[in-house]
UniProtKB/TrEMBL annotation:
<protein>
    <recommendedName>
        <fullName>Tetratricopeptide repeat protein</fullName>
    </recommendedName>
</protein>
<dbReference type="InterPro" id="IPR019734">
    <property type="entry name" value="TPR_rpt"/>
</dbReference>
<dbReference type="InterPro" id="IPR011990">
    <property type="entry name" value="TPR-like_helical_dom_sf"/>
</dbReference>
<keyword id="KW-0732">Signal</keyword>
<dbReference type="Pfam" id="PF13174">
    <property type="entry name" value="TPR_6"/>
</dbReference>
<feature type="signal peptide">
    <location>
        <begin position="1"/>
        <end position="28"/>
    </location>
</feature>
Length: 699
């Protein structure tokens, strides 16, 4: 992060002078001041003490300098405390600087939305467009962050669930205006048009390519089948629900909904999406690949009426379902007329009545029942069926229990769009069809604000060639999806690789472990173990490893290897042997370098157990079978030579050591081998011409 390079601009010239100016503390004029000298060496902690001693400690200049120091110390929280405790400065230039530093602090803390809002306010304090452009372009990657933050805020605004829509719209307009002023790209023209800041002759984005097939349009019959199916789900009649969906003619649509029902019933996400992939249904495919629907598979209890584990409720429900629908509804009405039933029981009976009437196509009875039920008490399946049947404005029909849950709201909105419910004009139809090679144009130019298209495009880019820049944007934009989690895990892993454990922990802590799939939970534990091992918390690493093994899934090879070495360090040689043998047993799937390393550590473990003969087996097998893996082969030969030397097999030991001397890349290894040869020569004494023979003549 470039901290404050934008202060070199004209509008900040006065402040730059004030930042540099400082008492000479007795130095000659030609020499640097103490403050400048501290800056040169990056002694920011000492510099803060100097600023704190200044008599003008509450002046804007001093407060800003102190905040800047904390940013250089990578302590954005402390910098923000200084900036937030200060009231707005009267001078526009100072206030712009305060807000800009606050934006940098929020960005350093990972709060991109707040960072952009602070940067926006900073820009609004300045009157010089050229200075604004320079300041913004000096902040690394701010153009992409500006786009992504606006896009994410627009998605939330588009859901139309918030009571603060006016506030959201104001923020979007301010961010878009600054974006257009600084970068003036087609993206910001579209953004401002969507907010009514500009006008255009076109009402809808242009189609990406006229040769693409027209999107699927669901018929009214299809929608009725979906309503009946989800009503049956609420009654736990999953086979009957599937039978209704199977009447949908179009294969891709039928596959989408049958897969959804299976996921609700079993809690399993689909492994095969070929009907959607082969047909190039980008958004429908992204719905599953991005795990937008992960909330669907988190337990069917939220989707069915009553407690599915309650035997009395199950008997009562089955009794009702065993009657003809009309008789069941009459029986329910009799129960509802009773003065003795509880409010909860009454609500449950009305919900069953709604489910029965919807599943049997009695829309008149269903409509009146719908008006009388508490929407917050309905299971998700029945709520979806009812809103699809009776409400034109889907978003306004959702109860608080849905609108307050980002994931549920996103799933409901997406499912509604898949049935043909009107989407925002910035979004492509749900069943849009386009081949992968046109995905970039479709997502970047035609529909740059469409969340599912963006997800499909970003996921494709990330799979082709993951980079830190891509991962950061994906982790921010799609934080509530499995793809966003995948990007965050990648960032955490990369942070461990460069030994930035604090940053790695920051990424890991952003992930809700409870929502992870089994594969991602394994990755999460894997990164956690790396952090714990690198920070010396071996006991924590052992506990995490035990949790990994409890998953009964394939543990990453390098994690098994790392933990094997930890077990050896802790003298748990038998445990280490078991882990290493599990790797050796699947050696055909490992690169030769890992095969060689596994053999070496097996040898080391046997040495620790004082099984010299077994250790020798591993060392020699390694030296013979993997001579190309120089570091492991030569180290194994050196270890084997020590065993032979201890046994008095001096010539064998010397031959092994001579090879080490010839082939070693490291001087230290060559010198160690030479030293052992000299020691062996001293033990052997004067050589004889028969010394190479193992045959001995006692007389």
């Amino acid at each position: 992060m470039k901290i404050y390079t934008h202060l070199q601009t004209t509008c900040f010239a006065v402040i730059v002078a004030s930042l540099i100016a400082a008492p000479s503390i007795g130095l000659a004029a030609s020499k640097k001041s103490y403050e400048e000298w501290l800056r040169q060496y990056g002694a920011w902690d000492q510099l803060d003490k100097e600023f704190a001693r200044e008599s003008t400690g509450d002046s804007p200049e001093t407060l800003l300098k102190r905040a800047n120091v904390y940013l250089n110390l990578n302590s954005p929280k402390q910098a923000l405390e200084i900036l937030e405790m200060s009231s707005a400065f009267e001078d526009n230039t100072h206030e712009a600087q305060r807000l800009w530093l606050g934006g940098q602090a929020h960005r350093a803390m990972g709060n991109l939305t707040k960072a952009v809002l602070w940067f926006t306010q900073s820009a609004e304090q300045l009157n010089d467009p050229k200075s604004i452009k320079r300041a913004f372009k000096d902040e690394d990657d701010l153009e992409y962050i500006w786009m992504d933050v606006w896009k994410k805020l627009y998605w939330a605004y588009g859901d139309k669930y918030s009571i603060s829509q006016e506030v959201q719209q104001t923020a979007l307009k301010r961010i878009a205006n600054v974006g257009a002023q600084v970068w003036d790209t087609e993206y910001w023209k579209q953004a401002r048009e969507l907010l009514g800041l500009t006008t255009s002759e076109k009402n809808q984005p242009a189609k990406s390519n006229d040769s693409n097939p027209e999107p699927i349009m669901l018929s009214e019959v299809d929608k009725e089948l979906i309503v009946k199916s989800f009503s049956l789900i609420s009654l736990e009649k999953f086979d009957a629900a599937q039978a209704e969906i199977n009447k949908i003619e179009h294969q891709a649509v039928r596959f989408f909904w049958t897969t959804l029902i299976t996921s609700i019933e079993t809690g399993q996400m689909p492994n095969d999406l070929s009907p959607l992939e082969d047909g190039n249904y980008l958004k429908a495919n992204a719905f599953w690949q991005g795990n937008i629907a992960s909330v669907v598979s988190q337990g069917k209890s939220a989707w069915v009426l009553g407690n599915p584990d309650s035997a009395p409720w199950t008997r009562f429900r089955n009794n009702l379902l065993g009657m003809p629908a009309d008789e069941a509804i009459v029986a329910i009405d009799k129960e509802l007329d009773s003065m003795l039933i509880s409010k909860e029981y009454s609500s449950l009976l009305k919900s069953v009545k709604l489910a029965l009437s919807l599943s049997n196509g009695n829309l008149s009875l269903a409509s009146s029942t719908w008006e009388s039920v508490d929407k917050n008490e309905l299971p998700l399946s029945l709520l979806f069926a009812g809103t699809l049947s009776f409400n034109k404005d889907f978003n306004n029909a959702l109860p608080d229990s849905i609108t307050s849950n980002d994931q549920l709201r996103s799933v409901f909105t997406t499912l509604a769009e898949s049935t043909g419910h009107a989407s925002l004009k910035s979004e492509a139809p749900f069943w849009v069809v386009s081949p992968d090679e046109k995905l970039q144009t479709l997502s970047e130019k035609t529909y740059p604000m469409d969340k599912l298209l963006q997800l499909a495009y970003w996921k494709t880019r990330f799979q082709d060639k993951p980079t830190l820049a891509h991962a950061k944007r994906a982790a921010y934009l799609f934080d509530n999806t499995s793809f966003g989690t995948q990007a965050t895990l990648y960032l955490a892993d990369q942070a461990v690789e460069i030994k930035d454990l604090q940053l790695a922990a920051f990424y890991l802590n952003r992930i809700d472990q409870q929502t992870l799939s089994e594969n991602q939970k394994m990755e999460w534990y894997d990164v956690k173990i790396k952090i714990e091992l690198e920070s010396g918390h071996n006991e924590k690493a052992l506990r995490t490893y035990n949790l990994m093994t409890d998953l009964q899934a394939e543990i990453p090879v390098m994690t098994v290897l790392r933990m094997s070495l930890l077990f050896q360090q802790l003298r748990k040689y038998e445990v280490a042997r078991e882990q290493l043998l599990s790797l050796w047993n699947k050696r055909d799937t490992l690169p030769s370098s890992l095969q060689a390393e596994t053999l070496f550590w097996l040898g080391e473990g046997e040495q620790g157990l004082r099984n010299a003969e077994k250790a020798l087996d591993y060392y020699l097998l390694l030296a013979w079978q993997y001579p190309q893996e120089n570091i492991w082969a030569l180290t194994a030969m050196y270890r084997a030579s020590l065993i032979y030397e201890k046994r008095g097999k001096y010539e064998t030991a010397k031959r092994l050591l001579t090879t080490v001397v010839k082939r070693a890349d490291r001087k230290e290894q060559r010198e160690a081998a030479k030293a052992r040869i000299n020691a062996i020569d001293n033990k052997m004494g004067k050589s004889s011409k028969n010394e190479a023979s193992t045959l001995k003549y006692p007389f």
